[in-house]
Amino acid sequence: MPKRVLIVDDAVFMRNMIRDIFSSGGYEVVGEAAHGIEAIEKYRALKPDLTTMDIVMPYKSGIEATREIVKGDPRAVVVICSALGQESLVMEAIEAGAADFIVKPFRAEDVLAVVKKVLGEKPKV
Amino acid sequence: MSRYLGLFVAEASEHLEALGRDLVALEGTPDGETVDSLFRHAHSVKGMAASMGLEPIAQLAHRVEDLVDVARRNPGALGRERVDLLLTAADAMLALVRATGEGNAPAPQPELLGRLGEAVIALTGEAPRPTKVARVEALLPPVAPLDPGRYEIRFRILPAAQSPGPRAFLVYKKLAGLGTVTSLRPPLEDLRAGAIPDGRVALVLETDGGLEPVRSALGLVPEVELISAERVADEAPPEPPSAASPSAEPARTVRVRTELLDDFLEMAGELLHATARLRDIGRRFPEHERPALDEGVDRLHALVKDLHGKVMGARMTPVAVVTDQLPRAARDLARKRGKDVEVTVAGAEIEIDRAILDAIAEPLLHILRNAVDHGIEEPEGRAAAGKPARGRLRIAVRRTRERVVLEVDDDGRGMDPERLRAAAVARGKLSAESAARLSPREALLLACLPGVSTATDVDDVSGRGVGMDAVKRSVESLGGALELDSQPGRGTRVTLRLPLTVAVVQLLLVRAGGEVLGLPITKVLGAVELPDSALQRSPSADLLSYGQALVPAHDLARLLELPDVRAPGTRPWVVMESEEGTVALGVEALLGQEEAVLKALSRPLDRVSGLAGVTILGNGRPVFILDVPRLLA
To answer: With contacts defined as CB-CB under 8 Å, which chain B residues touch A91?
Structure first.
């Protein structure tokens, strides 16, 4: 069964791009959220195997959303999508319980490599 | 008690070093001041060691104190031999203090104690009194703890990792979740800053779970390589004491001229350029010779980046250096104007690059003058408006994301955009049409143009010379931004958003109109190759289909009014995020990535809209860095 992914980003463009990356990698994108509050609601409803999380979003930041998601489900796997230069925010997100992070602008193969590793899947040879 | 250990080690070491110096001075000219100082140091060490339950140290300090007390009454009494004995005791205590800092219980010193005791008897005719020591438990780790399992773990962040700091921090957090990390190199602060020489990290983990969870935790983290994980002896420090002892010493400070720090930064920047140049040259080598060279260049790059980071760190200065003088300045100014003002400063401990701090000192003073002068009303005016007689000025500094935000609030009469528009038009500063086009916020910025002030009187305190437009310009030349908010009758807020440091930027180099230009990579979302014919034309702009969105597309050469020199056919489009939304910029070629130290533009280039700065590439060539939102504005 393909692993189920929730994508959280306030930019439609980024959500589409990340969705394409996951689809090409054989994952099932089960939902999208445009801000932190929606992310928490969708996470509770969908229980995805993996959540990608933008940091700077309206209403509730990705860091807050990560904190609440991991508090509610300590096994949640949240991967932060950050831009270069956001190192200190990434570290805040790690403190908040993020499992890993990827750095924008990203390439599909890098994203999939991180995700496979984080989910403990064997890399394709 | 063990939480005081670090402090004890630091403070006791300082006292003991001072004690040694005083003893040497005592041999020269035994004056009363030196003897008093000696006594205080010995007394302090005795007290501290006794409270920590460290009997061997406390006893030695007590005897030293006894002997120094003799010298206090009779400065010549000690003689050279006894000064030697005291020096030996000082050295022994210092060694014991350091051993304590490394987790070893101080060993009793019966022989030395005996010699000191004899000296006390010889000089005073009395036997030394016993030393009272607190009974302290659990100061040091128990000698045989319940099989804690200590493992030394070494791992390496791979050179390809884009953010080594967060990467290493992530590994640290995962390991810390398995037990207690008792030793970490580089220290956490450096780790977080990405200052990790060669990407190598070593730590000691105390855990009950054995090595298996460690391996599986590390197995889930990309860009990391486990070098070794070995069980270490329970009491052995991870490094020989000679290497561990510097950490036990208190942090020392030394004053350095600011210009020297500027030179360091300049040189670290040049080193970054030179490294980039080496990497460039390496690309011309045949494939099979490159790995060794690349590895060397990677290592050099890591070291130079580390150095650059350290130099940046040394330049960080608390905002207090500038804000501390503001309450006094405001008070004096207010008094001169017959007003009463109270200034509060919050967040002055926040640190910012010295160069940025120096550059905002003057503008900040000007903002303050404006507030006192035009913002805060006279006491009668305030009373009439139902406000307390004493005006309030609040300066708040905080850090957000990668910036320092500095807000200056006053509770004065505020500014009215409509009156400012009218005043600017009336004084011939701009046409009625231009004034009408300004947003209320933009209209506020007219306030401090010379001659536009709406203050009813003309004064000699502010409003002349440096206007708010000049303040705005100096803030923007630093890569910062200035905002004004105001509510008539309620007050005004001036917000300065400042970069934290003189930034190192990652650039995407492109060619447009035959020129090499830099785009800040943090804003780049991606790139596509398309012919111009693939654009969708709309009346307002050309649109490019990217992902599932349509993005406004611009020819970069045309935006910059550069000649159109490109060959027909497909071309790269760089898709970037800007404050206005996503945009695509058509270029002639993508040339690669480069790390560069951003240099602010000086006159007259700082007036050119759309340029964020300039940098020098590895090949020595200057390259302009574009400010895309302003380019499109």
So the answer is: 165-166, 169, 192
